[in-house]
Write a structure and sequence with these properties.
The chain is an alpha/beta fold. The chain is built from 10 helices and 14 strands. InterPro entries: ADH-like_N (IPR013154), ER (IPR020843), GroES-like_sf (IPR011032), NAD(P)-bd_dom_sf (IPR036291), Zinc-ADH_QOR/CCCR (IPR051603).
């Protein structure tokens, strides 16, 4: 089977699509023929070695957590799944950027009817991270919440989940994404110099009650300057700033469960959550996919299709 591998830390050119042996599921595991698998900014940091102290790679290393596909083989003691089932979920084995992947049965849910493969295969990391960020700041009805990176893979879901809580959401994004945010009930505000004043203007007479930072690059300090209590600031990028001011750092790992993935999948399938898909690439074009991701302008998720 074909799978993405890299044999040393480095830039995009270290990624290869190689022929490897098809894995065999063990106890409590199933083999999934992958139909879609999202890619993540965190995978860039791992591939570069920038997260070696926290998430070291063992070479040759695979990639990929998100997955959706069809069960083609089951190991012993599998519960709840059979050959032919359509599933989505995740693996902690850095292995879903491939034609086949082994996954634990407890990390999968049945794909709801009507949920597109591209959405199903890109829901885990972005979805559970967005879920955790909103949980961390606990927006209440009519409170004002600011989200940085509001049109990105995580931000585009976080703004919708915060709106479902009844919050007034201000989304920081580039101009081309303002129409999408406004259509989802979010007040769009542009990046750049003077952003604090634009946020205050958008908030009107209301204080900014909470801040979700999906971007890093100074937004934790901006939230403090806006008067947001540190316990209601959450960042998934700037851990150093969070430690300095006492902000929270809830992310993917804080909500990494099939229960949360299933809840989000059902919500998306019935139209209660839009998961924007920026572009779908064939597995062979994994370098092109990460080139677009690393440019940082994609609205929504970038997905691989084996």
């Amino acid at each position: 089977m074909k799978a993405v591998r890299f044999h040393t830390y480095g830039e995009i050119d270290v990624l290869r699509v190689e022929e490897v042996e098809r894995p065999v599921p063990g106890p409590g595991q199933v083999l999934v023929e992958v139909r879609a698998a999202g890619i993540q900014p965190g995978e860039v940091m791992i591939r570069r070695g920038a997260r070696h102290g926290r998430w070291p790679a063992t070479f040759p290393s695979g990639q990929g957590s998100d997955l959706a596909g069809v069960v083609v083989e089951t190991g012993p003691e599998v519960r709840g799944f059979a050959v032919g089932d359509e599933v989505l979920g995740f693996t902690h084995g850095r292995a879903s950027h491939a034609e086949y992947v082994v996954a634990e049965d407890v990390n999968l849910v049945v794909r709801p009817d009507g949920l597109p493969w591209e959405v199903a295969g890109s829901l885990y990391v972005a979805g559970t991270t967005a879920y955790a960020t909103v949980f961390a700041v606990d927006p209440r009805p009519d409170e004002t919440v600011v989200v940085s990176g509001a049109a990105g893979g995580v931000g585009s879901l976080a703004v919708q989940l915060a709106r479902r809580r009844g919050a007034i959401v201000i989304g920081l994004a580039s101009e081309p994404n303002h129409a999408w945010l406004a259509a989802h009930g979010v007040v769009p505000v542009g990046y750049g110099e003077g952003v604090a004043d634009r946020i205050r203007k958008a908030a009107g007479d209301r204080p900014v009650d909470a801040f979700i930072d999906t971007f890093g690059d100074g937004y934790v300090d901006l939230a403090v300057d806006l008067g947001v209590p540190p316990e209601r600031i959450n960042t998934i990028r700037d851990w150093q700033a969070a430690a300095r001011v006492g902000a929270r750092t809830y992310g993917e790992g804080s909500a990494a469960s099939a229960v949360v993935v299933g809840e989000l999948a059902r919500l998306a399938a019935r139209g209660g959550l839009e998961v924007p898909i920026a572009r779908v690439y064939p597995l062979a074009q994994v370098r092109d996919a990460f080139t677009e991701l690393e440019q940082g302008h994609a609205h929504g998720k970038i997905v691989l299709r084996p």
